[in-house]
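Reading group handout, session on sequence-to-structure problems. Before we discuss, look at one worked example. The prompt was deliberately terse, the way you'd type it at a terminal:

> structure G-protein coupled receptors family 3 profile domain-containing protein

The input record follows.
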Amino acid sequence: MSCRPSDISLFKKKTLLSAEFWEDHFQCRYPNSSKTRYNTKYTKECTANERLTRENMAFEKQLQFVSDAVLALAVALQDMHRRHHRAGLCPNMVPTKGSDLLRYLRNVSFMGLSGAEFHFDSNGDGPARYNIIHFKQVTPGNYQWVHVGEYVEGELRLNMDDIQFKIGHRQPHESVCSLPCQVGQAKTYVEGESCCWHCFNCTQYQIRHPTEETQCVQCPLGAVPDPHHVHCLQIAEVFLRAESPWAIGAMSFSATGIMVTLFVGGVFLHFNETPVVKAAGRELSYVLLTGILFCYLMTFALVLRPSDVVCGIQRFGAGFCFTVVYAALLTKTNRISRIFNAGKRTAKRPNFITPRSQLIICLGLISVQVLVNVIWMLVSPPRAIHHYPTREDNLLVCSSYVDASYMIAFGYPIVLIVVCTVYAVLTRNIPEAFNESKHIGFTMYTTCVIWLAFVPLYFGTGNHMPLRITSMSVTISLSASVTLACLFSPKVNIL
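And the output record:
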């Protein structure tokens, strides 16, 4: 066998490098080594008894895999040789059959350099043993590889206390494309991706869809999302409650008016046959007192919780009570006007001024309002509805309050009030002895002022339903009180 000069040169270099390693490690002069600028400082000769051990040398741990591979082949050959029960070279192993050797190789078992048993598994793989090392900063500016665990035969042993991803912080970094969305947030997937998404907040009045994680849904009217935008919460119904200060004040005022009205009615009944009661027109006075009583009772209907029946009562009663009052007043003023106008032309008494005629005229005027209410209820039945002026409101009201159709109920009474006021103006100059017309005039002037104040207040409080209903109740009761005070207090005082 011949060697090329380049092979000899490479051999010398390797030998020289090995000698330099030996000299540097044991601090001695390698026998017969060439002088270099490094080994001239060593005075003692190497004895060839120096040994590389675990005490003076840190071995590369990966060498065990090379050692295990060599030993596995050696053990397999040894087991094959022992089978033939011969010393020395076995003729049956010259040459060795690869299939036979593979069979022995698969069944080897020995203690390797790592101190653990080496063997092949059923797949022909070596034992799965791995050291897990972690490169970390142990002190500021100092980084080291640290043994933190091992994987042996399918079992992972990991010391989490030795693992850190930043000095002073043991929490590992999260390795995900997208973090889970927070409660109440929906997802928008990145185009072409199924594991990456962006999270977005549902709007002020939306919640996350119960089943679709990519959608937000709007809460229905009368409901708002909970703080986490997961469920829709019903907004409490708002209506004029009987226990509220608004309702208590209105009912107290009406209750006082009812007691006064009953007292006046009792006085009139007690003095029913006196000239004062007869001169005032007993029949129309009782109709007037009945209308005033209805006005006060209307407050208790207005403060009830809205329902279809309650809304029907309110719709019918609000206009009807006024109609009874002002139909009686119109009949009175018309009678006075006709009597004094006829007196200027002739001594003959005008027609339809008897008590019976007066009642028929008054009932005829009242029947117009009844007809209007009946037609109105047939065309548009009264209903209690939920009204939502804003997304934060949930008003339980009668439908007539929402579209202001309640003014239909007041339309006819307003016409009566205007005509009564006109008659009061026309009869203002009648003889002083017949002073009831002046009382009627003062009643109508005051009533007009009250209603002129009520209309803007009613339409200006559309979103404050308790205030709107209270204002209507107080206006009705106040109009009744003005009529009661101006027309009946002088007569009660006389009686």
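Points for discussion. First: The chain has a mean pLDDT of 81. Second: Residues 183 and 228 are 6 Å apart (CA to CA).
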